[in-house]
Structures are given as C-alpha cells and as structure tokens.
C-alpha cells in the first residue's frame, strides 16, 4: 500500500496529482488539502485538521462527500500534518508521499522535514518523500544507498540535519567525495549532479537530508 498525504500548501507548488493516482494508493487530506483533493476529483479516506483555513461552505461540501473527518481544536500539541503522518505510519504502508507541505510558512516547512526523522529512528522500513513541483525531499540515516538519475530533477543536494555527518562518500557524481566530514552549516554538498544512470552515497553517522531539484 502507498499512502499520499495532501496538506494545504500553495497550490502553485503542487505537481500534477493525476500522475500519482493509482489503484493501490490511499489519499489523506490535511486541513485545506482535503478540499483541494476533492476539487481534483480525488476522495481521501480520512482528513485531519482544525480546518481553520476552510470556510463553512467548503466544510459543508467536504462533509457531504463522506470522507471520515478527524477534527481537532487549534490549541493542540501536534500539527495537523503530524497527526496525519502518525495515522499513515500506523497503516504500515511501503511508501508515504507528502504533497502541499512546502512553500508558504517556513516554520511548517522546517517542521515537516523534521517529521521525517522519528520514523527513521524507529527503524521503520517506510520510504517517505516530501514532493512539490520542483523538489523531492527525504532523509536517511547511516548506510549505503543507491540513487538513480531523474531527467526532470537534475540536482542532488545533501544537507546535514544533525550537528555533523561522518564519512560521506559520493560515487557516480560530478563532484565525488570520499569519507568527508560534513558539519551542520556546510554548503559543500549543494547542487551536485549524477554523471551516469545511478550513483551511490554512504555515511557512517548522523542524519542527512537529500534534496532532488530541477533547474
């Protein structure tokens, strides 16, 4: 099973959602994201949020469509996205894609990236990607990983999410590295490029944000 979550980020940053519809995909709406899904003729199985960005008329429309709604007060400890992601993780899917979680408020963007860390620390074997029109973002812990070239995403950037990342090695890249220590705040690994169909990256300690971007 694959779960797709649509949050209420700027619509102009969303990819074409029709490219991500398939029979084995379960859709989840977060706050205004549920309304945007229904506007795209996609019915989510469940929706999370305080729905403070939804008008009464829009909420009535959502309720008529029969989606299960988990409504919360604005005063809560978790963001709407965290509540939705926790539900998705509990379903044990093989992949989670999150849309509408970039752009707009920077605090939400940073929080959404950090939400990818707890599943990693819990050793959940679930691939989780943040996706918008220009970027694919995911996080990795220590290990060796294969990465394939994407025609529409030329650049690959590696950004420490911890105080440092140890022994970063990049092979098959325009700018290779061998056992390099990357401290938090370094821009050394921004805008790299794969030079063949695939490459590898590996490191021994820390948490790394991987960002695949277009021009």
Automatic annotation (TrEMBL):
Lineage top rank: taxon: Bacteria
EC number: 2.7.6.2
Family annotation (SMART domains): TPK_B1_binding (SM00983)
Record bears the keyword Kinase: yes
GO biological process: thiamine diphosphate biosynthetic process; thiamine metabolic process
Top-level class of the enzyme under EC nomenclature: transferase
Gene3D superfamilies hit by this protein: Thiamin pyrophosphokinase, catalytic domain (3.40.50.10240)
Thiamin pyrophosphokinase thiamin-binding domain span: 143-209
Coiled-coil regions listed: none
Pfam families assigned: TPK_B1_binding, TPK_catalytic
GO MF annotation list: ATP binding; kinase activity; thiamine binding; thiamine diphosphokinase activity
InterPro entries according to UniProt: Thi_PPkinase, Thiamin_PyroPKinase_B1-bd, TPK, TPK_B1-bd_sf, TPK_catalytic, TPK_catalytic_sf
Protein name: Thiamine diphosphokinase
Organism encoding this protein: Neobacillus thermocopriae
